[in-house]
């Protein structure tokens, strides 16, 4: 509710077109549903056609089912991240429009079509082992209405694999680099292009990799300017950030 | 040099329009100057009208002067980051078009005008102590040709300061949040808008802040989706990333 | 045994009202039972009507049963924290007045009624996944005789959920904020009120969350003044601290 | 501005007693002063008679002077923490009611009297080296209108020093324990009393003390229930938290 | 083989009482058995009547059986630490003189009697959960021929439990303190006595305990002088160190 | 494709001996196979007779089978590291020339003979528990065509075991030291010889060993000059590095 | 005051040989002097002939002078650790019996003779750079009445230097090993002898040494049994612990 | 002294060609000079023509002068690392054959010529700021008799700078990569060549670089096989390791 809305509401009260109690109600009736254990936030999806998102870790199956039931009633698309297989089976009881990506632990419930953007997001991985995280980014960006391309297994140990695919880097508007180990790929890609690069460190590695810390630090300290880094294994966050960027681009294109 | 360029070059060789040695030269003559201790990379600025950037820490004044002398000859704008005051004095001998921002330790040498974008980047800080880092982001984005606005000292300890400025958040296309301490501002801002938010943790804090680690972890673990995080105190990186995003937006607008 | 007690004891010895051996006994007979592997401390509950508390992790079921058997004889209420389900089954054999909260891993054995305070403790969570820890705080404070209210799932990613519940914050005398991820909720709540706020970081998160470290550091570095922080996932400690505060408030009220 | 205020405002608009523009103004005119680089928050002091607080680290002397000048106009007491001596000299130019505690790096500007509470806060230290941090807590609590007592240098290496002072622990309503090294004093004190204990780890130590981390972890992991911990060397935060507790106690006493 | 031995050997060679090859053999025949995957070191037990010790973690059952078979032939006592139950079952096939302490994961094979020292080692624990580690120390010291006493569950949260047992501290010659959580017990004990105190941090705790790091740092930073600290959960090392000290005491007594 | 190759290619184009499209093909046909989820890199093995290597962690069995199938067609030897037993069973279906080293989690598929070098690599371990990692180094170096010797269980706690085997150290050209615990063996070996020493820290240890960090730091800080350190438990990397060194030695010998 | 003392005191009260107030006084008059900012603990020196010790870091010169003045009156020897040179100059004003060891930052004020023990403590260092810490141990042990020997610069990079001095190791009763870098010397020495070894990690090193952490972890994880470790650079603690051990040995010898 | 030497010595004793005391002397006269505070080890230089090396940090100027004086008498070349300028001035008094490299803090005293190897060591840096560390490696390798080449400022942010210099990589036998920031250069170089690559992480960076930790972890986790890593900023160690490798190569060449 922005300044303009408030001014209009006040004007209606002044003109007698709105009772004080009604005005109170409008000011107070915030766009979330209260389930007791969860306040479902329909805010963003109402405004944006965005899917609603549930982070499943630490929630009981019953809680997740309650939240999803509430969401389904509104007809929105739903993305459930960090979902174990048993969550999937629990939600299967609620709807048939459901798909489970086991290695990415992500559930997609698609109730309505999403448009595709003209601009492209390219998701690049260092190795094959990084694909589950990359897939989380791909699905997220896709559900948010973006055109998404992939370029997998082009890590710097054999840099000709990347250099041989520079055309793909050039065609993209936003690039997500998903890499474990030393995560050097993010720096190299960022040095090759002049567009937004989002770096996703993965926990692929062992020993002094410390479950992704080595990749994370590598990306935060990139000698290439202007990488935006998300949490370790946070494909969802990268896909979401890429989408907010792409939305700005599309809006400019359509103006 | 892309596939099309190579094909054309080969065609010229075939047609006798280009000698083998000339072709070799074109394939090999990469756009950097070799100073021995530094390979000055004119690549980006040539292509983009971008300023050239020097990271000063760890370089001797002589080295920096050598590099800047080389850059000045090409007429580019120059940004020198992490520059102690003595670096500024050393460079003053080379040019008058130079300005030093002491608390941000940044030197600007502006030799040519830069255009302004239609889209806006908004730089927000949690406290007054975060301003030197914010200023680095502002100057960087400005030098890269962006329209930049500021909203300072709106940290979450008095959240009405932020909520009272939501219009500024709405007007911006890209938001950079600069915050030390617990860095919660990034999450709150990101929850209020639906646009790209770049988070810059600062080293403002003490004790268990660990010189910025607390802010950094806070931002990487934001419950708000899709923050892109840069290194601690890396105002430059945030300004640069915001600029690459803005460039995509402007290109879309102009198509 | 304070100075006054000692003086009285000495006076009785002097007056011949107490034998030296009896005096020795009183000086030595400390209020704990020695089970060999555990010294059960009845001290606090005797004095306070407090329940007795067992930290179960690392103790064998036999040891826990021995300790609880000893406690049951004294008629006190008992709180067993960090208790696996098998501990619950072992204790079920000892008493029927037993309840197990599976997700909070807490066992309650209530043998006597506890009074309710006039002042209120409000337990707030950032997300649904933080509820098991919040529940530990709720049960602990409840068992210690406090009036406890709840406000769940009001994290800062959708700050209108919190702002829409400010009345609940205002009614409380002490607030416990339970939050994982970046734990920013504690700072925002603390900035909105002017009362004791106890912050409980949770291990809800992944990657660079480091099992709660990110939330912990965030809370320790809050830009809002005067948060008291407890260990990661330590709902018990928060409930206990809130109760000691409430006890001081109630005592002042009753004077 | 709470629900009741909004209802009244809306009623005035309805009755024509308030113009829409005036209502907008009242809704928007939030109680802070905007200095550009700082938004001075008079909120709390207006409501509470609390002093206004400035965290000086990272702010320029000019900025601090600007903020204090603004505060002085309102007649509030002022507390400047983490202030180097040069800050003190800069502020001396503005007022004579100023005092500087060099080892605690705290500046006090007292423009109005503060009342004293009936309840007592006791500040305890492990060693003599912890006194500067303890002093920060003492001054903060004192400025916030509390009765404060001290018990210094009673660390656990000579536990008879603490045991010989148990009467002081008993007389206090809230205890702040300030300790470096292994910080064990907090646990021992907390085990001896049944009241709120706030633990302040200090950076007193060396080697594997890691500038206070050892004390911090020790206090967070106390085997004694219900310690509230603040950041390393954060005497201010402890004094502030103690004061919010004491305020609740006093309010109950006066009801 | 010390200087005197070498001189005698050389003298025998000179005198023709020893052939060069024999001398070579004596110089080379080091007291260990080579099993290929393990060099069993009989050195210490030969010299000292000490048991032989195997660290089981990371060794296959076959390897452990091979090593123990070799040891059994020499008639020594054997201590196997960090042994899973399946190791115990594997070794049961080799000998009947075997005992397994499940919670301490330690196996004792006693083939010969060990004497008892006059001096006493006292093993103290903070809580009941620390007993498995304490037991490792007790068994180790016992197997090495020491008189060992125990004082369990006297942590500082109820310090009267420790103060009520000061006589036991006074009777001991060497004290091992085993404590998790904040490990404060080591400091308090060390402050009460004037004898060697060996501190064993345990992994008993959670959250910011970091699997024993909090206890470890606490003990390394003790304000009480002269604690010797061993690795987290290293009851064996503490028992062994106590025994080397006791051996020096006994030797002095017997001179 | 080096400068000389490009010049020849250009000359052929000029002379009409090569069509533009053919030239394009040669410039673009990089030596890797694209499986979509993986770009198999035949580069090194083609050039060197080296085996192809797969890092199995994080890859699905189907992906691994796809990659190996592609490799088998080229007749190369294959090394699969970090392979669970189920990977082995999946690959058994593809070929009989396969061997699985369970404790080292390494799979060897040998399709062609490898030569042996004249120079020797010696793999030394501190304890028996380090052998699985050592074995990974041995197999890797062996598959890469090196002569490999072993010296196991010669840790510094019984230094005579090492000193009694100095001849083996002298005969080797390159030494790999594999050690957990405090990893001191690497320093001692490096002090005894004057040849390349590669240090492999292992995760053998507990408590403050932090899964290999203690050994890693120990080796990085060796007081003996010139150790090359690889990641924790990275026997493969050590074997590979030793092999690149040996290859240089052999090339010099054969010139 | 032990059980026997209390019984006697009670008997005197009973017999009228002691008034209640006197008895109170004796029970309360604990052996420390209260300076307000410091409670000087004469306990140990009274009982033991031990010097009194001041940890100077974080104390003002005035505080240190106050404490030392109080100590001097009792005629005890005094040891001031972590003392900057200006502390030395401040104390020079109080007494002439004062000596300052600049590199060890330790001040000795010797007012009375100390006896020498028959048993020997040997202090060994890895390098020359470790000597300042070793010297702190030597002086501490010396002041506490022990016979102390030295063996410096025998680090494991040239192990023959240590092996050539095994006789010194054999003659000692207790060995203190002071080492930085990878700290391997402690393990090697401990493996060579069968007596108490106290390990002192030093901050000598750089980079991944982390100011002593590498040495500390190395010593805590020693593969040689039974090292007792003290804090980084804590020569004082090592000297003190060695002395408590030696005191037990001497007592046994003299019985 | 190997087996053969001992056998010959024993034979001489047997034959009466060597007295027992002489034999003792030969067995005991180890090749180091004892200065009390330092045992100068002439071992390696005697055998190898290697320079003697002093690590200066933590040593007093007097100690360093004493050690160098002893070394100078033997006519060896000397390398002093981590030497502050005042050390240089102290040593200037001893000899004129001395040179100081200020930014690398290394002193070279060259008393005799060193030969050059046929094989080449190439030292590569990511940036200009890494040169001081690279220079330490260059000087060390040079003093040890190696042919050393340089390739500076070819970091991955502009990868064409590296790719344009592949010929230099091909000509080298051993490559040392010196890089700060994210240290990705080591992986990229290692992927381009098939020879020993030694990686030196530098402390060039800020914030989450943690003084070199980010570069170190990056290099330890390289996706390119077989990097040998040395400590942060340890140019000396890299030069030394490269030299031991080169020595093996040269020996093979000369056989």
UniProtKB/TrEMBL annotation, chains A, B, C, D, E, F, G, H:
Q: Which residues form the PurE domain?
A: 119-251
Q: Name one GO molecular function term.
A: hydrolase activity
Per the UniProt entry, what is one GO biological process? 'de novo' IMP biosynthetic process
SMART domains, per the entry = AIRC
| Pfam families named in the record | AIRC
PANTHER family linked = PHOSPHORIBOSYLAMINOIMIDAZOLE CARBOXYLASE-RELATED (PTHR43064), SLL1489 PROTEIN (PTHR43064:SF1)
The UniProt entry, under NCBIfam families, shows: LarB
* Name of the protein in question: NCAIR mutase-like protein
Q: Which organism is it from?
A: Halobacteroides halobius (strain ATCC 35273 / DSM 5150 / MD-1)
């Amino acid at each position: 509710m922005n300044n303009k809305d408030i001014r209009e509401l006040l004007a209606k009260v002044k003109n007698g077109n709105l009772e004080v109690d009604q005005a109170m109600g409008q000011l107070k009736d915030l766009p979330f549903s209260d389930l007791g254990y969860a306040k479902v936030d329909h805010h963003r999806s109402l405004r944006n056609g965005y899917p609603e998102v549930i982070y499943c870790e630490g929630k009981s199956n019953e809680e997740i089912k309650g939240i999803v039931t509430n969401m389904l009633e509104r007809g929105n698309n739903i993305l459930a991240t960090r979902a174990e297989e048993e969550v999937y089976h629990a939600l299967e009881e609620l709807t048939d429009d459901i798909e489970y990506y086991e290695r990415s632990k992500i559930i997609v419930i698609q109730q309505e079509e999403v448009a595709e953007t003209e601009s492209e997001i390219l998701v690049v991985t260092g190795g094959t082992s990084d694909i589950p995280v990359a897939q989380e980014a791909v699905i997220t960006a896709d559900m948010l209405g973006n055109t998404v391309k992939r370029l997998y297994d082009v890590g710097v140990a054999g840099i000709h694999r990347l250099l041989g695919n520079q055309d793909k880097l050039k065609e993209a508007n936003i690039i997500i680099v998903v890499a474990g180990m030393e995560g050097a790929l993010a720096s190299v890609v960022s040095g090759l292009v002049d567009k937004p690069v989002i770096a996703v460190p993965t926990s692929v590695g062992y020993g002094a990799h410390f479950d992704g810390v080595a990749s994370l630090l590598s990306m935060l300290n990139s000698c290439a300017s202007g990488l935006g880094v998300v949490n370790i294994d946070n494909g969802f966050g990268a896909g979401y950030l890429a989408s907010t960027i792409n939305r700005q681009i599309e809006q400019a294109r359509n103006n």
